[in-house]
Backbone:
């Protein structure tokens, strides 16, 4: 197998370009730090290549001890050399980032078309055919390395969109401003501890490169942690393995002693995810392996993943226990995935199952880089809805399998357009007998 050093990969990619994010672990400020292109770490955003994978596993620093060597905008030192000699490792000395830690990303749907609906039993008309335009919303991304071990990054989103206030009625329809943060402490290369809310590589599928330019992994079909603490342990100069174990809070409703009170505990949800890469660049090496596509850095690879999420609570009704959203009413969900890439072709499949409601979740993706800037993908998903199990324990089949062909074009390193058509395999919703709405959406992401 041909070996490629990390330094040679970085030298090729060290060209000035914008480094933006679509909820991948690409932060604009990191481009300023290294003065590099987004394609150093990504094979079409947000799909990470071998360098990007090693960057994440090394606590969001360049692997192989190369972070300082390739940092183009150094840290401003606090204190003096005399202080360091007299008080080694004291908090009175250190540094803070010289580069601007902020970046702005505009994202959202530009055009949206929905088909009309009707009741197949009564014939009554439902929703009319829709064709709408929208304005993207803005998110503020931040990220910086603080000293030799700490990295902090996150997102503040919700700026823009439709805003309306009704003061007399005391009703506000302002766009909600939300903030997410992830703070990572690197004990050693491949061994990290993280605190945060959202942005967990274990739980947030978008931060694992499963969106535009990426394919599904097990994180997509498992519940996601909210406020969490987790350990990440990774090894592998060629191939390798990675284990993420964490604990997360999950709000639960109680009936006593205070009815409908929301309670939290740090160990509400426990989760573990593991990945084994059999073929391809090492999870820690950055570029030790056969790079299958030199234009976007995607190496030929084959990997397997498994995961398990456990919610400790079993309260009065199924809707009051466990997770939320598609996993509401469940307390144990486990799954597995397989991912592969060969030159410009990517494919992945993921499946999960829950213990309580006996439901299955399944998704399979296949995509191809027609050009380094043009990616076509088709997805088939059957994600169970946890509300299929109500308080009377009656089962209603509301599985809604979907087929989604999409195409993503990076019209510049900082701007992408994605067109997605969502087709429902089942014509109607089982409970209402109303037909599903097939949709087409054109979305944009632009960052600087």
Residues:
């Amino acid at each position: 197998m041909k070996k490629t050093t990390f330094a040679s990969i970085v030298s090729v990619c060290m060209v000035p370009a914008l480094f933006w994010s679509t909820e991948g672990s690409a932060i604009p400020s990191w481009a300023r730090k290294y003065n590099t292109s987004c394609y150093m770490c990504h094979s079409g955003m947000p799909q990470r290549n071998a360098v990007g994978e090693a960057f994440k596993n090394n606590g969001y620093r360049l692997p192989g001890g190369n972070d300082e060597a390739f940092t183009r905008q150094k840290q401003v030192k606090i204190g003096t050399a005399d202080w360091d000699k007299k008080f080694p490792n004291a908090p009175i000395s250190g540094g803070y980032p010289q580069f601007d830690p902020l970046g702005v990303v505009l994202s959202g749907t530009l055009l949206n078309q929905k088909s009309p609906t009707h009741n197949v039993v009564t014939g009554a008309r439902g929703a009319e055919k829709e064709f709408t335009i929208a304005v993207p919303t803005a998110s503020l991304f931040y990220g910086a390395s603080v000293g030799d071990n700490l990295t902090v990054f996150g997102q503040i989103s919700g700026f823009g969109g439709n805003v309306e206030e009704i003061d007399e009625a005391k009703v506000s329809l302002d766009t909600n401003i939300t903030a997410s943060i992830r703070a990572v402490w690197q004990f050693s290369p491949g061994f990290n501890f993280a605190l945060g809310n959202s942005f967990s590589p274990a739980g947030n599928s978008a931060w694992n490169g499963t969106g535009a330019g990426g394919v599904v992994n097990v994180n997509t079909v498992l519940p996601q942690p909210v406020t969490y603490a987790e350990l990440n342990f990774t090894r592998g100069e060629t191939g390798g393995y990675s284990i993420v174990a964490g604990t997360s809070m999950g709000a639960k409703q109680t009936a006593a002693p205070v009815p409908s009170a929301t309670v939290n505990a740090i160990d509400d949800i426990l989760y573990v995810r593991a990945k084994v890469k059999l073929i391809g660049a090492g999870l820690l090496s950055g570029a030790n392996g056969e790079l299958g596509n030199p234009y976007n850095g995607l190496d030929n690879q084959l990997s397997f993943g498994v995961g398990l999420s456990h919610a400790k609570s079993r309260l009065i009704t199924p809707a009051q226990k466990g997770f939320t959203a598609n996993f509401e009413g469940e307390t144990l969900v486990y799954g597995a995935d397989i991912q592969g890439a060969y030159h410009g072709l990517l494919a992945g499949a993921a499946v999960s199952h829950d213990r309580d409601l006996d439901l299955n979740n399944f998704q399979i993706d296949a995509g191809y880089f027609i050009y380094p800037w043009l990616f076509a993908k088709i997805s088939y998903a059957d994600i169970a809805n946890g509300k299929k199990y109500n308080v009377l324990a009656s089962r209603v089949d509301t599985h809604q399998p979907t087929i989604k062909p999409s195409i993503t074009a990076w019209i510049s390193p900082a701007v992408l357009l994605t067109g997605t058509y969502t087709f429902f395999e089942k014509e109607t919703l089982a409970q209402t007998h109303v037909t599903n709405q097939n949709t087409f959406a054109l979305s944009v992401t632009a960052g600087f």
Remarks:
- The radius of gyration is 23 Å.
- The helical segments are 6-13, 28-34, 50-57, 67-70, 81-86.
- Confidence is low (pLDDT under 50) at residues 6-25, 162-173, 315-319, 389-395.
